[in-house]
């Protein structure tokens, strides 16, 4: 299984109750993703993040930016 890239899209500005305005992750979530070792755990994290973004709203731009990031790294998009 190929390496799953971080859901971070390099915006990293924390507003909206501590959530990044780019990817919706909190600082503890970013730390947690970096600590995950197995690709299937990282993929599950990305899926959880998508559900979180749907619940919070206002993150419609993230999917397109993450797809570009995956394409640049030549990795299939995990969703």
**Helix/strand order:** EEHHH
Uncertain stretches of 5 or more adjacent residues? none
What general outline do the C-alpha atoms trace?
globular
- What's the average pLDDT? 92
> Would you report the number of β strands?
2
Q: What's the helix count?
A: 3
Class from secondary-structure proportions = mainly alpha
Give the domain tally.
Answer: 1
Our estimate of the beta-strand percent is 5-15%
Please give a handful of descriptors for the protein shown.
3 helices; 51% helix; 79 residues; two-stranded antiparallel sheet
Give an account of the 3D structure:
The protein is mainly α and 79 residues long. It has one domain. The protein contains 3 helices and 2 strands. Strands 1-2 form a two-stranded antiparallel ribbon. Strand 1 and strand 2 form a beta hairpin. It is globular. It starts with 13 loop residues before the first strand and ends in a 7-residue tail after the last helix. The model has no long low-confidence stretch (mean pLDDT 92).
